[in-house]
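Shape matters. As here.
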Amino acid sequence: MPRSQRLVGVLTLAVLLAIVLGITGFQLSLPRFGGAASTQAPPLPGVRALAASVLLRVGIGAPPGGQLAFVAVEPSGNLVVSDSKRHSVLRFDPTGHLLSEWGPRLGDATLTEPAGVAVQGDRFYVVDRGTPRIFRLDNTGRVLSTVNVQPFGPYGLNGLAVDMAGNMYVADTGRNRILVFGPDGAMLKMIGRSGADLGGFTQPMMLAFAPDGSFFVADWENSRIEGWDVAAQATDAWSTGFHPFGVDVDQAGRVYVPDGEQHRVEAYSAQGALLGDLGGPGSPAIDIVPRQVALARSGQPALYALGSDGIVRLDLENTPPPPQSGSDVDPLSLAVIAGLVVFVATAVMSRRTRRRAGLAGSPPGRPIRLQAKNGAQRQHQQARADQDLLITDQAKRKQ
């Protein structure tokens, strides 16, 4: 018995120690199965919002009667915004001052329903989902070239992104695919297919490139973000718990996704680990319904959240890296689980051993007696019952 109790005590202490180490984020540097050492990249820092300010609203800073759709940030820090109701492209400086408005007329062409916008160097791109086509403009709004998307049968073009080579990636939402065109407008490839498995889409809305050339797609109906490598092969996907309209990636590789239902912007690692909850508890409020996001690439780290009626600027700050989960199995977690199993099993076996020992100590046929205290209590209770009955009989006789 003492030895069994000591064993249970030691196991309990070991399990508690392992749990404490796991909670504090301690990990053992052990080689993985197969003999290869772990080569995981260092964890990304977390992020939080220092301040949130309304940069502009439709009718206050932006022309009245508009409906803001998509946003991009120039290398200089200026903002490029498509206005679907005014059929134009708006440019603002970082303080929200309107610099210029292009459209509805663009030379001999007319913008009918501008959607995704992008900036690459001194070139500007805008999707016209009503035509459908993609315009490439200079910094004065003059049309340099046009890509006719109609021959490929699109159905509801939305987000646009341009890679370092000048290739244009446009989300064909209704066809569940990404269309890719070269700088000369030639069709290069179609990415994705209908579905909810890896490599599939159900209404992709927006995409954004990471610094290494990989990209991420806001898969709206599937409520997830899907990652693709530089060879356009799907590599990962994670659930957001909400329908994401937009996505952008900062220079560190953190992925930002707006949650319009909760008035938040969530920041993730490339594997889907949560790195920040902008607009959540303890964070400055986002006073719009964010649908798209765009990051400033220079100066003070900042994120612009766009709603249909305005834009909010969030000033950002790095925080220590939170614990991140990966696909590899953590040996410490396995040790904790194994310890808990051994502890429960030992406790059960110890209890059975004590029970058997107690039964073996009782001679066969020995009558089971009440304890003296309980027996006295029952006799006392019986006496009081007889007294009550006697009092009742006496009362009847008197009557």
Observations:
- Helices lie at 2-23, 331-360, 372-398.
